[in-house]
Amino acid sequence: MGSGQFLKLVFLTQTDTTIGFVSQNDARLSEIKQRPSHKHYIKALPSLAALNTFARIPKKHKNLVRRAKKTTFVLPNGHSYRIIQDKHHLLLLKRLGWAYTTSANLSDHPYDENFAKEAADVIVAPLKVNAKASSIYKLNSYTLRRIR
Fold it and tell me: pTM of the full predicted structure?
């Protein structure tokens, strides 16, 4: 399998927060989750340096973003990012460079293991019990607002 095909796959894996789908193919994730294609996914990144290639973090919030665990930030560009620190999730993420991440369920439905395993191209074991979703904060140059 060529590296281009690898990047189009949808992985079912234990993320840093929940059992989720991970892929660079947002169109495929939208199809699987039956979610409108205009909605953005969280972009999971292996480091702050990787985040800096996609967006500028307001200077006031750089230390918060660097130190945060299991926290998603909506930046002024309107996109959501999470720096991953969980070792298991980082193994896959470092190979991909970055990936969209989302819970492994149909939109607005609870997790269903059978659905998740059938929808994924690759299952990365072990899969643990579904945990709490990440906290979400919206940042701009001056303010910080908790969304979830």
Answer: 0.89
